[in-house]
Structures are given as structure tokens and as C-alpha cells.
């Protein structure tokens, strides 16, 4: 069968692929061939993606993992997770341990520190002679600094875990991805062992002391490695793309410089539009039983890709969905953090970092602009998190 084959080409890093827009216009669910050659269902419309996020009949595991369709060679999200019979219990246990570490109160207490870090990075940026790569000057170091403080990871080790994070996210080399993931777990395990005798005011130390011995070093290391990876990689991408979206609509960038009260709306719009990989597919799930949605029957065991970035630009859910509008009057219930029981644990942290950046960057650098054409910016298509290779700017 001649199926649409991922990934689809797109014109630049801010666009959805024309082919994926065509599929969305044709219907909410399409049978496609993934980058690995397997078949999967691609879900592109907002209401269906939202419904399937919350549907307990979909999960991350598969009853026969060796036979499951894959979407990439990533060891993280390219194929099924372990534990088909215990997935719900395992997931609930993981959230019970991590959600308190990202409480609203903790994020409020962290807010001044995040703002201080942004101010410091922007002061260093202002002392440099443009052009400057904003990715290296701001977008990358800020989330790394924040997650290092939160977890209790030495910032001096950033180049080491950056290398491991990049390897983990590789979509084409399973051995590299799996090996990097194991090395990151080993690295965090060494930190955990040190913190058992030298605890600090950080998440890893809390997991050791508050759990009162119910978690092994290996279990804490596994949780810590995922938080370390997910806690900085996606926010790096969103700061880059958020800046790019605003520079591509300079009137809105200037509006933020003039009125920081517009920042909350801008952050939500950035979140809606900055889910990268507009031609690559979506978040992988597997049907645990037969599922029928919008007239399509998804058989038990089938792979399902929830195309969040495409759903966030569904004209049935958003007016002028492809337009960046920081003053958007309608509600902005984007799906960038998911929906339902698997809603992103770190959503409040990401919002805090984006708010601090976009309250300050336009005010400190009102004349910021790109030094290259949009079409010349390089998207890291070989990585799970995508993102820009660099963001060259001047002012």
C-alpha cells in the first residue's frame, strides 16, 4: 500500500509541512509509514488528539514489544516502553514521586532565582559584540542552569550531560541513543551516592530522604536522568523558537518591549506554536485494545502518533491558527503539555522560564533581529527534541 511517508518536507523551521496540512484537511486520522518503514496512525486534528491523550485505551507499552511498530531508532520514544501489564501502576508511582517536586509553591519560590539567572545572562550578552548566537548565549544555558539547581547537578558538568542528552535524542542510531541514556543514568547514580552522605537542598536529595529508603539508587538515577534530559531540552527549543516567532512578527516583539503585561499571552502563544518537528510525526502511543474514533477503527497493538504541533494549528480549534498573536482574544487551550493523566509534570517550570525570558529580552534588546534568512536556519531533524543548531542575532 502506497502510504504517506514521514518525515514530510517543510519550507522553514516555523512552518508546518504542506503535506501534513493536506492530511489534516482530509481527515483527523491517516494511515502513514514512519521513518523506520513501519505503519502507524497519524492523528492531526485538535479534538481527536485531545481525546486520545486522555483515553486509557492508549499507552506507551505493547504486549509484544519485538513486534511493535517503531517511529524512529530513539531509545526513549522511538518504540514501546517496558511493562505492558504494570504501565498504569508504574506511571502513577512515578508521578506521585515527581509531581511534589514541581509543586506550584516550589515554582513560585524558584521564580526570583530564574529571573536573576536571565538578568545575568542578558548582562553578559549585552557586553558582547554582535552578531551573537542567542542559542548558546541564552536559550541553552538558562534551562540547564535551572535544572541543575533544581536537581542538584553541578553546572560544571553541563558539557558532559549535553553530549549524553544529544546522544539520547538521536533518531537514527539506536545503539548511540540507548548507550547515552545508560551513561546518563550512571552519571546521576554517582551523584545520588554522593548525596546519600552529602545531601543538599535539591530534588535528588529529597528523593533520597523523603522516600525514606523506598527507592534504590538505580530508581532515583532513572528518575533523575529523565528529569535532567526533559527538564532542559524542550525549554531550550521553546526559547529559540519563541524568540524566532517574535522576531518574525516584529510588531509583537516591540509590543512586549513596551508592555510586559502582554507576556503571559505571548508565552501561551509561543507554547502553542513552538512544538517542533512540523513534518516529523508526533508523540507515540499504542492501542491497548481496539479503539474507534471519528469513524476510524484502531486495532489493538497499532501505533498511534499524536501530532501535537499540527493539532495546535487546527482551524477547527483556533482562529487563524498559523498566525502568531500575543493578544489572542479566544482561549488558548493548546496541547503542548499534553492532556489528562499524562499532562507534563514540568509545565509550570517551563512557563516560569519562558515568562522570565520574554519579560526581559525585548525590554533589554528592543532592536534585536536575525542576521540570516529564516530559510537558512538549520533544524536538528536527527534529534528527538529537534531545535535550532544556532540562532544568530544582532541589535
Could you describe the 3D structure shown?
With 395 residues, this protein is an alpha+beta fold. Helices cover 47% and strands 9% of the residues. It has helices spanning 18-26, 46-53, 87-98, 104-126, 134-139, 141-151, 158-168, 174-197, 203-209, 217-248, 250-258, 263-273, 308-311, 347-364; strands spanning 29-33, 39-43, 58-59, 132-133, 283-287, 291-293, 296-298, 303-306, 369-370, 392-394. The strands form 3 sheets. A 5-stranded mixed beta sheet has the order 1-2-8-5-3, with helices on one face. A hairpin with a 5-residue loop joins strand 1 (29-33) and strand 2 (39-43). Helix 7 packs antiparallel against helix 8 (174-197), helix 8 crosses helix 9 and helix 8 (174-197) packs across helix 10 (217-248). The protein is globular and about 55 Å long. The chain starts with 17 loop residues before the first helix and ends with a strand. The mean pLDDT is 94.
Amino acid at each position: 500500500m502506497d502510504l504517506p511517508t514521514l518525515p514530510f518536507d517543510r519550507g522553514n523551521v516555523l512552518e508546518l509541512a504542506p503535506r501534513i496540512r493536506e492530511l489534516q484537511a482530509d481527515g483527523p486520522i491517516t494511515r502513514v509509514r514512519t521513518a523506520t518503514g513501519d505503519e502507524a496512525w497519524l492523528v492531526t486534528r485538535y479534538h481527536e488528539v485531545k481525546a486520545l491523550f486522555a483515553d486509557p485505551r492508549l499507552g506507551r507499552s505493547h504486549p509484544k514489544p519485538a513486534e511493535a511498530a517503531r517511529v524512529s531508532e530513539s531509545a526513549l520514544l522511538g518504540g514501546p516502553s517496558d511493562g505492558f501489564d504494570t504501565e498504569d501502576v508504574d506511571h502513577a508511582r512515578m508521578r506521585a514521586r515527581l509531581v511534589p517536586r514541581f509543586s506550584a509553591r516550589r515554582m513560585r519560590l524558584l521564580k526570583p532565582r530564574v529571573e536573576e539567572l536571565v538578568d545575568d545572562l542578558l548582562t553578559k550578552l549585552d557586553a558582547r559584540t554582535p552578531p551573537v548566537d542567542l542559542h548558546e548565549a541564552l536559550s541553552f544555558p538558562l534551562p540547564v542552569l535551572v535544572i541543575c539547581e533544581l536537581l542538584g547537578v553541578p553546572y560544571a558538568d553541563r558539557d558532559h550531560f549535553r553530549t549524553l542528552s544529544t546522544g539520547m535524542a538521536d533518531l537514527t542510531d539506536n545503539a548511540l541513543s540507548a548507550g547515552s541514556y545508560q551513561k546518563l543514568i550512571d552519571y546521576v547514580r554517582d551523584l545520588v551516592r554522593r548525596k546519600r552522605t552529602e545531601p543538599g537542598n535539591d530534588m535528588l536529595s529529597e528523593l533520597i530522604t523523603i522516600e525514606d529508603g523506598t527507592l534504590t539508587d538505580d530508581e532515583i538515577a532513572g528518575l533523575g536522568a529523565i528529569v535532567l534530559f526533559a527538564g532542559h531540552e524542550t525549554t531550550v527549543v521553546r526559547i529559540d523558537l519563541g524568540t524566532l516567532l517574535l522576531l518574525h512578527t516584529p510588531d509583537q516583539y516591540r509590543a512586549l518591549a513596551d508592555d510586559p503585561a502582554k507576556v503571559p499571552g505571548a508565552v501561551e502563544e509561543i507554547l502553542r506554536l513552538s512544538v517542533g518537528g512540523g513534518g516529523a510525526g508526533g508523540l507515540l502511543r499504542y492501542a491497548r485494545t481496539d479503539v474507534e474514533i471519528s469513524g476510524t477503527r484502531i486495532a489493538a497493538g497499532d501505533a498511534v502518533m499524536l501530532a501535537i504541533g499540527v493539532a495546535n494549528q487546527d482551524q477547527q480549534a483556533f482562529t487563524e491558527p498559523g498566525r502568531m498573536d500575543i493578544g489572542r482574544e479566544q482561549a488558548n487551550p493548546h496541547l503542548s503539555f499534553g492532556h489528562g493523566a499524562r499532562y507534563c509534570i514540568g509545565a509550570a517550570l517551563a512557563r516560569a522560564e519562558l515568562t522570565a525570558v520574554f519579560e526581559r529580552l525585548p525590554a533589554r534588546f528592543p532592536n534585536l533581529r536575525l542576521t540570516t534568512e529564516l530559510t537558512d536556519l538549520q533544524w536538528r531533524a536527527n534529534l528527538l527534541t529537534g531545535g535550532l543548531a544556532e540562532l544568530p542575532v544582532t541589535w
